[in-house]
Structures are given as C-alpha cells and as structure tokens.
Amino acid sequence: MKVSVSDEVSADEAQAIAEAFAERFESDVSVASRSGDVLGSATYSGTGVDESAPSKFDDDLGPTEREERLWEEIEEIERGGPEKYKEQLPEQGKKFVRDRLDLWFGEGGLHFEDGKFAEFDASDQLPADGLITGAADFEGRDVHFMANDYTVKRGSMAAKGVEKFLRMQQRALKTGQPVLYLMDSSGGRIDQQTGFFANREGIGKYYYNHSRLSGRVPQICVLYGPCIAGAAYTPVFADFTVMVEGMSAMAIASPRMVQMVTGEDISMEELGGPDVHAEHSGSADLVAEDEEHARELVAQLVSYLPKNCDEDPPQTEGKAPSLSPEGIDGVIPKEPNRGYDMESIIRRVTDAGSWFELKPEYGKEILTGFARIDGRPIGIVANQPTQRAGAIFPDAAEKAAQFIWTCDAYNVPLLYLADTPGFMAGSDVEKDAILEKGKKMIYATSSATVPKQCVVVRKAYGAGIYAMSGPAYDPESTIALPSGEIAIMGPEAAINAVYARKLAEIDDEEERERKEEELREEYRRDIDVHRMASEAVIDEIVPPSTLRDELRARFAFYEDVEKELPDKKHGTVL
User: Fold this and answer.
1) pLDDT band at 376 (very low <50, low <70, confident <90, very high)
2) What pLDDT does 205 receive?
3) Which of these ranges, 124-138, 367-381, 460-474, 491-505, has the smallest mean pLDDT?
C-alpha cells in the first residue's frame, strides 16, 4: 500500500503513519511525499507485534499468596462440618454429601457450585450453611441440584441456605432444566429462625416455587435421612420421590414432638419410614436399597422424561418384548372372575427391560409405570386382577390420578389396560372417600391432552370403563381383545339386581339353576365386545398376538395429535 502525504510531514511522522497503517490494514505500507520522496515504510508482521521488541507481559507468574489462601478456604469449606459428625455417617450407611455428589455426577460432571462461601464469617462452623447448590450433568442432561450437608447442624435450614435454595429454584424456572433434591435435613434451624421462616423470601417460598415448577420441569427428590416438618414438604411436592431403606424418613413432626402432642411413643421408622410412605401414604414412588441403588433408579426414571413440558420424551432404539406376544390370549383366563397377573400382558407388548413401575406397594389394584413400545416412552395405567379382582379402591384411584396428571404434564402418551369390575363399594371405601378419589382419576383422564389408547383386556364394568379412558373419554382408540366385556355391571350382579325375585319364585332348584344360567349367557352375549364393535362403540377387536403391533402403529400415528381444553383458568377437582 502506498500513502501520499504533504511535503511538510517529517520523516519521523511518516514512519509513524506507515506503522499505524500497516497494523490497521494488515498490509505492507510505504509513505511518500507529493514530490515522490519515500519518507517511511513498514512491513506487516502478521501479529501486529514487533517480535524483536521486549514483551511487556510476563508468562512465568504463578498463584499468589492471595490465591493460595483462597484455595485453603475452599478446601476447608469442602471438608464440611465437624469431623465427629462425619465419622457417624458410615454407621448410618450413608455418604458424606460431597462424596454423594461424586457418585451422582462423576468426575467433571459438576458444572459449578453456588454459594460455597455462605456463612463464611459465622462464629460457628457452618460451611456453605449446610446446603450445596449448583448445576451438573446427570445422565447426559443438565440439571439444577441441591444437597444437604448432614454434618452441618444435621442438614438444618437457615437464612443463607434458604437463600441458596430459592435462587436454585428460581433459576430452574428460567432455564427449564430439571431439579434434583438430595435431601437430608432435620428441618428449620430453630435457634436461628429469625430472618428466614416467615419472610417473603424465606422458607415458605420453597413450596411456592415447588408449585410454580410443578409440571414445568421434572422435580425429583431422594431422601437420605429423616426429613422433618418443613423439610418433609419438598419430597411430597416433587414429581417423584425415592426413599432409601434403613436411612430415610419423613414426617410432619419428630417422634419427640409427636409424643409431646399426642402421647404416642413411636420410632422414626414407624412414624415415617419407607414402609409407611411406600405402602400406606403413597408419598414414596420408589424405595432404594442403598445410595448407589437410589442413583440407578433415578437414572432409569429420567430416561422416560423430557427436560421440561415444552419437549417430548426421548426415544430410543426399539427392542423386542421379553415375553412373546403370541402368549397374550393364553394368559387371560376364560373365566371372568379368575385372576391373572396383568404384568405378564405388559411384558408381552412393551420393549424388553423397559417396564418401570412406580408406587408398586400402594394401591396395588392398579399398576402405574413407564415403559417403551418400539423405543417410544409411554405411561401405563393397568388394572391388576391378582389384587382384589382389579376393583378400583380409593388408594388405587388416587395413585392413578396422580400418575396420569404427571404423564400429561410431561407429554408422555398413556396406555390404559382395562380389566376391572369397577369402583369398589361398601362402607369402608365410602369413609375412605371412594367418590372423591375416584372423581380425581376420572378428572385426570378427562383432562389429559396426550395421546391415549384404551385396551379392553377383559372386564370393563361400571364407571371402571370411564376411569380407564373408555370411548367417552376421547382416547385416540378404544380397542378390545376377544375376551373383553363392557357393561354396567357383571352378569352375576345384573341377574341378582333384575331377576332375583323372578328366580326366587321358581320352586324347582334344577329349573331355577337352568333359568339362571340361561339369563347369564344371554346377558354375557349382550355385553360381549363383538356386540360393542358391531354397534361401533369400540374401534376394533384385535387378535391378542397382534396387540403390540397394533399399539405401536397407533401410538406412532397419533404422536402429533393436538387436543385443547376449554378456555378457562383451571378446573376445580384437583
């Protein structure tokens, strides 16, 4: 490049211009006067730096004393609370919290931690204020997490820890990433409650944020110890809760407080251990054998879920079922009142190893869980004939309603496998709110906008066909096996209700039994699925051995179906 300047420009000025232009335009430059005399020139070096000039940046500096002091402070914080409390952890079968994070996220899996220096200036030893929060990679997806440090005041919650917890939740609302709660907390720190208990941004905000996150991103809670009072609400607000045998418990109050209030002398295990919440309250979805097993269960669980409500669940390569579909019809007894295990049907239509049951010990008359058909995640709601003939009891209805609601929130299609005599009757179930809890199941089914497939496997009596997403409940299909029956009630009950007086008037016992059998067969023909198919009540009767292929085709075809609920703020049932 040539640059022309006036004759008044000195040689030094011309040289400066040449060097500036060479750097600016990345080119060799010569500067000449108007008379043609070359006054200066510069060659572009490619770096803009004169390599022969001494560097003003030193590259041999190491960490200063200031940085080394910071590293020492970090190491001290990461050691956790007093050593005597850390030594107690192996006796309780559990890990120190930072070892637990290593188990969950592995080397390099922890993206960052927030609030490590919380309560750094406290007069007491309160590293990180007993609560670790941050972000990490879990099974290939980004998650927010919190984890109590039980060595710091028994994992209790106080002002700075509460602030960290709330920030983590609020950031999850912004990012739309799942949240893991690794809980081991004795509740609020009573001797430091000022400033966090009732404040606008205090511990009460936990549950406000839980409610806001509910249905937005998956919230998964694992309990590693006794979680009491306020701490016990996080697991029940979570979408899924895992307890650990011999370690976990949760209750609204401690055994000591229970004894003060009620006089009841009870252990923590009896009050709120895994058996209580897995079998009786239904608050625990899964019970793990130990810490490693808890992680394995959550890893399986998240494989069926999207990262948030705006995405679809992740699909995988399909697998053949573990049991042959050819045997489906052979599993189903000809006698309508004889039991069989519905899980055998599930394993014949879903991918091998994909059936993942939730709440297996609660409301056993209904099975709920995730599975895959040809790699596509689905949620399954299935009556279980081995348990009280598959009748729907209050606990089972509540369990199904919650599962349906959760699947719908996270875009997981639903498969209903119906074989039920309907909702249970009697004074005990009325006291246990069969109508209220049954209503919730029907409401959840009615409100679900994900693709739904209903299969009438055998009996579908009474309101059972409603709760199991029968024809009136907007399933994408209602199909039946040849063993199926749909009716207000079963033959025995119907004959007793309609013909009891007429049958009683027949004196001859043989004649009465013959007439009863005749009425029974006539009624059974009337409720047979062939009649329902003939009247176009159901969509199709399928050969049992083709059920998997039928479901695969229907779920694939309807995967993009769009449904809308009426324009309203929300319903009032739940």
Assistant:
1) very high
2) 86
3) 491-505
CA distance 181 to 183: 6
Distance of CA 537 to the CA centre of its chain: 35
**Cα→Cα distances 62→65, 67, 68, 417, Å:** 10, 10, 10, 67
How would DSSP label each residue in 298-335? HHHHHTTS-SSTTSPPPP------SS-GGGHHHHS-SS
**Mapping DSSP to helix (H, G, I), strand (E, B) and coil, where does residue 110 land?**
strand
**CA–CA gap between residue 332 and residue 324 (Å, rounded):** 14
Which of 301, 313, 400 lies closest to 354, judged by CA? 301
Sheet holding 110-114, edge to edge: 110-114, 131-138, 141-148, 179-183, 219-223, 240-244, 286-288
In the numeric block, which tokens belong to residue 109? 């899996």
pLDDT tens digits for range 275-299: 999 999 999 999 999 999 999 999 9
Please say whether the beta carbons of 157 and 192 come within 8 A: no
Burial 514-550 (b: 16+ CB within 10 A, else e): ebbeebbeebeeebbbeebbeeeebbebbebeebbeb
In this predicted structure, the answer to whether residue 48 has a pLDDT above a threshold of 60 is: no
Give the count of alpha carbons within 13 A of 482, CB side only: 10
Asked if residue 217 lies in contact with residue 237, where contact means CB atoms within 8 angstroms, the answer is no
Which residue in 400, 316, 5 sits closest to 139, CA to CA? Answer: 316
Nearest alpha carbon to residue 272 among 221, 235, 219, 218 = 235
pLDDT at residue 193 tops 70: no
SS3 86: helix
- In the chain, what is the greatest distance between 2 CA atoms, to the nearest angstrom? 140
Give just the sign of the alpha carbon dihedral 410, 412, 413, 415.
negative
User: What SS3 state is found at 156?
Assistant: coil
Q: What CA–CA distance (Å, rounded) separates 318 from 412?
A: 17
For the CA atoms of 137, 142, 143, 147, what is the dihedral angle to 10 degrees?
20
